[in-house]
Amino acid sequence: MRKKAIAGLLAVATMGAGLAVSVSQPEAAQAATRDSYSDTIGNPSFEAARNKYGLTKNMRDGSTLHTFMWSFKTITEHMPEIAQAGYTSIQTNNVSAVKDNSELGKGNWYLNWYYIYQPTDTTVGNYILGTAEEFKTMCDTAHQYGVRVIVDAVANHFTSDFDVIEPAWQDKSLFHVNKGNISDYNDREDCTQNQLSGLWDLNTQSKEVENRMADFYKQVVALGADGFRYDAAKHIELPGEFGGSTYWTGILNNGSQYQYGEVLQDKNVREVDYANMFSQSSIGGGGVTGSDYGQEMRNSMNDRSLSARFFSDYRMGTSPDKIVTWIESHDNYCDRQSEKFTEEQVRGAYATMNARGETMTLFFNRPYASGGTQPWFSEKSKIGDVGADDWKQPGIVASNHFRNAMVGNDMNTVNCGGDQCVMVERYKKNGSSADDGLLVATTERGGSSINGMSTKLDDGVYTDEVSGAKLTVSGGKISATEIGPNTVAAFYNAKVDTTPISSATAAPNQGVIEDTKSVTLRSFNMANASYSTSEGASGSFKDGDIIEIGGSTGSGGTVTVTVSGTGNNGKQVNKTFTYTKETVTPVDTLTISGDGVSNNTLTIDLASATSAQLEATYTPANATVKKVTWTSSDPTVATVSSTGAVEAIKAGSTTISVTAGDKTTSISVRVTGDIPVDQMTTIYYPSSTYGKDSTYIHYRVGDGAWTVAPGEKMSEACDGWVSKRITTGGKAVTFDFNNGAGAWDNNGGKDYTGKGTTLVVEKGQIGVTVPCKTTPDPVVVPVSSVSIAGGDFSLTEGASKQLSATVAPSNATDKVVSWKSSNATVATVDASGNVTAKKAGTATITATAGGKSSSVTVTVSAASVDVPVESVLVSPSSLVLRRGESGQLSASVAPSDASDKSVVWYSSNPAVASVDASGKVTALKAGVAAITASAGGVVSSAVSVTVTDTVVPVTGITVDDPADGKLGLQEGASKVIRTTVTPWNASDPTVVYSSTDPTVVKVSADGMVTGVKAGTAYVLVSASGFAQVVEVTVSPRKTVFTDVPVSAWQASDIQWLADNAISMGNGDGTFGFGKSLNRRDMAIFLYRLAKLNGDASAASFKPSAADYARFSDVKQGSFGAAEVLWLASKGVIKGFEDGSFRGDKSLNRQDSAIYLYRFAKVMGDASASSFKPSAADYARFSDVKQGSFGATEILWLTSVGIVKGNTDGTFRGGNNLTREDMAVFLHRTHNHLNK
Predict the structure, then answer these.
(1) Partners of 564 in the β-ladder
(2) Which of the seven top EC classes does this enzyme belong to (predicted)?
(3) Average pLDDT estimate for 69-73
(4) Where does 1093-1183 have alpha helices with state H?
(5) Average pLDDT for residues 789-793, to the nearest whole number?
(6) What is the average pLDDT across 252-262?
(7) Contact between residue 642 and residue 709 where contact means Cβ atoms under 8 Å apart
């Protein structure tokens, strides 16, 4: 029988494992000719699809789904849902060849995500995402649905492992070498020219590198990409920096239509320059990441707040259209900066940010069943699988549709009833509600009423996409029901299909079955979800249920899994996925041979040799062997590598074993003598760099082969140091250090080299002084026995049992227990000893530690017989409800002993009547809906639910202010009458005001009463036939100033101050016309204006000792002290650095603008809180520059008409403010606050 040596297995595996596919030369030649913009926006088929789903024309105007770690096939499968969910673009990961880590963690997220950012070549395809052909298919499918594709481009570096870089790139002139890792991220040269975390940094000054990378990105565009996100962009110098670099200029000219860079904000990053560069790189623009804004979003979630202030400041000195914003990025999640936030928190913050529409937004798709209250990485989905379903949750989808429909509209963001509720208004003010909208989001802290709030939307009726609820705007006021907690509501008139997305899938959605395979069944917004397999298994399932396949399928066969159910639109969903059972040829015989092996024994004399090479051979030659595993029962005597290389350590005996397939064989190893001191080298390294348990050394002796990366783990030598003893035979050793996860210390690319008995590396220098005190070798305590508690046991199919093993003696050196099942088709056992029964039969469960084993037998019996559901009966048989009412349905399942009696409720028209998991029906709008209940795959007869509209009549009206129904005014003074209509949800709460004598008292439509002349008149306040009367007595003006010219244009404003007791003038009857205003008088006037506007805190304010301590020159009882200190307590005034207020100092126009802006915010003005000056705002005044002190405050006052500047286009902020101009500003401020 022919034998096959395992020595060649590694090479064969390497050839078969790679997914990288080099793009052919004809495609590369075509690459330069594809224009993404013309190929999409200029393509009638693409445009028809884009318009069907309402996606934005410009990528920057839409939202982007970050399909992190989804395979190309998975993205293709879900493309219809992505388009339906309103995502203008998707962003996939780096598509180039990367370091293959597929054996580590077998597809687990946590152990693989980092490697997608470790390129090894400029070819398309890798083990995480798939092949070049699959990438092209994905792009073609995206374009069929009007969706565009952004590719994550790693243009700064390659992997840290030089040995796995493709030979064509293994030229160190193509990298920045001999420079070491970045030490100061705020030093431009250090940040852009040195290595990031030990990764091989591309030589971006090299034209060869520039041309290769430019060609690669053109190839990616030729395959269908429409844009790029450049990873670590701030680590690449800007054009003209450091050697006159042209790298960006070369690679950005690739035919894509939108490009942006990951530029994490810090000192000296030049993010605005990067933003401008990317914005000008493509026809559709581009920009940079708003990392500081993302942090602010997470701050808002940390505070359980949706305060408008979190959303309004993008924290970057560039326009919003050059910024990409997110709630969390993949780095934030994977670095545990955001994983604690729940899906609901992310949803509320994202929907708000998204609805504003000023930046391109990126929605990161988390791994399935991970984050929030769930594990960080549950590993219930693997790399390549679709992540959590949050990306298509109705609130997120509604925010996408809302955003897309509002492109070009004005925007206003305000809070509603507190920071637990935020409202984003999008409007055109053209008299039509068809193109306006309002999105509301709330936190878990409770809902809020927006009823009665003022709005900028045009009058009309608006519908919430999520719930179907209505919102009415009349006269600039909102009429709507309360918004519940953890809610996103998008009120607008949708122009695309808004049916909630329903889906069913299986994960993974393809693959090879080695023995059996676990498949996770996924269901989203589905009724009657069920599955079936070609192996005969079937049944209903809940989202996240796991089935095992492959157990009854022979070698080389296929297994299909079909998932089905009823979607929200009543349509049947049915998908089938195919898996292939691996062809397995078992190992018949396995033997060990090699240097000095005789009669299954190997003897090594340390005085003459320290190593030996073993070889394992198996028959037959075509046996299926995935991995050959070598172990030593006592690694303190001799170790064995993964390739069979034995390294003798000290005198003693050990057993070397090898496993291939299901066979294991062993030889005895006897080590004698001692190693000559000059034949060994001990290398020491600080444990503070990578940790005492996570430091690896990657080395070679002399001109020999390097160890397989990451190398061999170093062990703790003493406090602060790890070490590794290497048999060198007196030769020099070349070595690097790393953490096993991509961070490297390779001496700046030069490697470390030395020889001798001791080498100590510290701060890049090699010394020879042993840093640890000499201690004797540790005593190795062998394992004497392993026992499993409980003995043999039985389980039924699907059940599990946790086993525990005891290792004796308790102080044994190697107490790590490994578990194994003799028949995984009957029962599996995981690394912790948890046994899961799969099918009837028996299996032996073995626990092994330190070369000793113990076993128990598990007997698995068939699961109980499934009793199918025969019928589901719902009562009552019909319901008639008024809008807002609810009714209860109940379902009985027969027979009573049915296996699956869990009931799922379904409404044919959830916009009319919704039904919850308990059968409670809520009437939402007039119409008819059919409610059904299902259990065990059986659906009940439909229950008819008829919903009728409800008219809520007005039952009364009360006057809240003045409460006694009497009001006194001076001539020219004004006061708002405040009323309450009951009930709060009356269908028509309109209040009408009228005066019995307009020559004495006039009243506006919103209840503003103004005294015209001395006398008495009555104001009639009515609503739907209910009325109240307010008696208004107008007294003559008490104050007329002698120095105010009748012709002065400010005269009416000055008189208004006097009429409302804000300014009483001077003792001599003058106003002080033409004189400068001092700081104390401004404080007094603002305080009185606050009281006029009903601020209770001003009226009740009494300065405390702490208040008087604010300013050294504001003394207790002094004129204006209370007024100054109230404003200081509100943050309106802040005094000088020496602790003084300087009340007699003249106030200039700039400072007055700042005071008025802060005052408006204190009075609750939302437009002041959310204001961000535009280019048009800065164009108002020639002397108000962007970023200058007070610019925002001045321009806000200008935008609302409080200040207007001078006729020469200046504001003259340094000029003193006159008292008459102060009168104008205060009067206009009052009018603005009372709009």
Answers:
(1) 530, 574
(2) hydrolase
(3) 95
(4) 1096-1099, 1105-1108, 1121-1129, 1149-1162, 1166-1170, 1175-1178
(5) 90
(6) 97
(7) no
- Phi first, then psi: give them for residue 347, nearest 5 degrees: -60, -45
Q: What angle do CA 399, 153, 388 make, to 5 degrees?
A: 40
Dihedral of alpha carbons 94, 95, 96, 97, sign: positive
Q: Is the pLDDT of residue 18 over 50?
A: no
| Percent of the chain scoring above 70 in pLDDT | 96
CA distances from 674 to 725, 781, 840 (A): 14, 21, 55
What is the C-alpha separation between 487 and 480, in angstroms, rounded? 15
| pLDDT category of residue 21 using cuts at 50, 70 and 90 | very low
What is the rounded average pLDDT of the residues 1068-1085? 87
At residue 15, the pLDDT reads 26
Measure the CA–CA gap between 839 and 551, rounded to whole angstroms: 9
- Please choose, from the candidates 1230, 1190, 1232, the residue with its C-alpha nearest in 3D space to the C-alpha of residue 1212: 1190
Q: Identify any residues that bridge with 4 across adjacent strands, giving them in sequence order.
A: 618
- On whether the CB atoms of residues 448 and 307 are closer than 8 A, the answer is no
> Any catalytic annotation for residue 231?
yes
Exactly one of 121, 231, 389, 1095 is catalytic; which is it? 231
Max CA-CA distance within the chain? Answer: 125
At residue 401's C-alpha, the angle toward residues 396 and 404, to 5°, is: 125
- In order of their start, the domains of the chain are 20-405 (3.20.20.80), 503-581 (2.60.40.10), 589-672 (2.60.40.1080), 677-767 (2.60.40.10), 785-861 (2.60.40.1080), 871-948 (2.60.40.1080), 956-1035 (2.60.40.1080), 1051-1233 (no CATH)
Q: What's the chain's average pLDDT?
A: 88
Instruction: Give CA–CA dist 104/110, Å, rounded.
Output: 10
Q: What is the pLDDT of residues 995-1027, one digit of tens each?
A: 999 999 999 988 889 988 889 999 999 998 898
Burial bucket for residue 825 (CB in 10 Å: 0-12, 13-18, 19+): middle
615: annotated active-site residue: no
- Beta partners for residue 1139, in sequence order: none
What is the 3-state secondary structure of 901-916? Answer: CCCEEEECCCCCEEEC
What does the pLDDT read at residue 23? Answer: 33
> Which tokens in the block code for residue 1012?
């015209």
Query: Tell me, what's the pLDDT at 437?
Result: 97
Give Cβ neighbours of residue 421 (< 8 Å, ≥ 6 apart). Answer: 306, 415, 440, 441, 442, 443, 447, 448, 450, 483
Q: For 388-422, what is each residue's pLDDT tens digit?
A: 999 999 999 999 999 999 999 999 999 998 889 99
Q: Which amino acid is at 1049?
A: W
- Asked if residue 1 has pLDDT above 50, the reply is no
292-331: b (≥16 Cβ within 10 Å) or e: ebbebbbebbeeebbbbebbeebebebbbbbbbbbbbbbb
What pLDDT score was predicted for residue 605? 84
Place of tokens 């679709």: 386
Measured over the CA atoms of residue 1068, residue 1070, residue 1071 and residue 1075, the dihedral's sign is: negative
Pairing of strands 1008-1011, 1001-1003: antiparallel
In whole angstroms, how far apart are CA 884 and each of 259, 350, 515, 924?
A: 48, 29, 55, 6
Q: Which of 77, 134, 152, 262 is catalytic?
A: 262
Residue 530 near residue 937 (C-beta atoms within 8 A): yes
**For residue 1126, with 0-12 CB atoms within 10 Å meaning exposed, 13-18 middle and 19 or more buried, which class applies?**
buried
Cα-Cα-Cα-Cα dihedral sign, residues 632, 637, 641, 646: negative
Note the pLDDT tens digit of each residue in 126-142.
Answer: 999 999 999 999 999 99
For the entire predicted model, the pTM comes to 0.57
3-state secondary structure of 1084: helix
pLDDT at 1211 exceeding the cut of 80: yes
Kindly give the pairing relationship between strand 148-153 and strand 538-540: unpaired
